Amino acid sequence: MGVALASLAGVFVSAYLWLYKLGVIGTLSCGAGGCATVQLSPYSVFLGVDVPLIGLAGYLGLLALGLLAVHPRFVAERWPVRTLMVLSAIGVVFALYLTYLELFVIHAICRWCVVSAVLITLVFVLSLLEDRRMRRAAG
Amino acid sequence: MAGGSMNRFYLLIATLAVVGGGVLYYLSRQSKAPAVPIPVSVQPGDTAGFRGYVLGPDSGAVEIVEYADYQCPACQTFGLVEWPYVRERLIATGRVRFVYRDFPLDGPHRWARLAAHAAACADEQGKYWEMHDHIYETQGQWSPSRNAGSIFREQAGKSGLDLGAYDACMSSGKYAGRIQASFEEGARLGVNSTPSFIIGGRLYAGVQPYDRIRALVDSLSRTP
Predict the structure, then answer these.
(1) Residue of B141, B142, B146 lying closest to A21 (CB–CB)
(2) Half-sphere exposure (CA, 13 Å, Cβ side) for A104?
(3) What's the ipTM?
C-alpha cells in the first residue's frame, strides 16, 4: 500500500514538472529553489526524452505494480515485489545521478526533484522490506 | 488483505488520483505561460513619447539605431561580441547615442516578441540594458525551449527586477502594441533583416563590427 501511495505521489510530482517543461504551467512553486534552472538546463533531457516524462512513466509503472502486488490474486506471488525492487533500484540510481548533476554540474537544487528522490527511495526501501518479509515467511 | 479493506484502499487511490489531477489542472489554468499576441493593432497610446530604448547623451553625439530580434543569432553575435565595445568605447565616452528598437521576425522566432516584451517590462523598472544582456546571453537556452517565459523570468530575477511587478507586466501584454509599432516603423525605413543599423541616416544591414562602427562615427563626427 505504501508503495502505491508513494508512487502516486511520484506521478503527481513528475507530471507537475513535465507540464512545466511543456509550458502548460508557467511558473513552478519552488520558493527560493532553483527548479527553473534545473528544469530548463540541458540536463533535463536524457537520451532525447524529458527527464520528468521518464519519471512519470516510471512512477506509473511502479504504481501499477504496487496495486498489483496487494491484489488478492497476486498477494502471495513474489515476482511483483521483486520487479518493484529492481525497477525502484534503477530509479534510485537515476535519482542519485540527477542529484549529482544538480549539486556539482548545474549548481542548483530543485526541491521537487528532491521530493521525487525521497519518494523513489521510499518505494525501494518498502519493496525491499516486503521482499524480505515474504522470504522469511516462505523460508 | 480482506476484500473490504482492499476496496477502501482502491477508493483511496482513486480519490487521491482525482484530487491530484484536479490540482494539476487548476495550476495549469492559474499560471499559463505568458504570450504576446501577433498580430496586434497599434494604438496611439502605444508609442506616445517612446522612441526606442536609449543609451547615451541626449545631444551632441552620433545616433545609432539598431533594429533587432532577440531570437536572431546574428543579433546575439552583435549583442555579445560587438556591443560591449560600442558601449564602453563609444557610448560611455559620449560619442554615440544608441537606440535599440524591436524588429521581431516571427516565423521560426516564436519567442522574439515575448523576449522583447520581457525586456520592455524590465525597462519599466529601469533595468532594460541588464535584461537585454541577459536575454542575449541565454539565447541558446531559451530559443529551443518550450517554456522560454520561465527563462526570461529567471533572467528578470538576475537583472534585479521585482518579480511580482514583472509577472503583472508580462501577464498584461501591455507592450505588444509598442513592439509592433517598432516593427512597422523599421519596415517603413527599409529594414528587412536583423540586425540592421541606421547610422547617420543610412541603413546598414547585418552585424556591423565595432571597427566599422567606430570608423563611421569618426567620419560622421568630422562632418561639419
Answers:
(1) B146
(2) 5
(3) 0.77
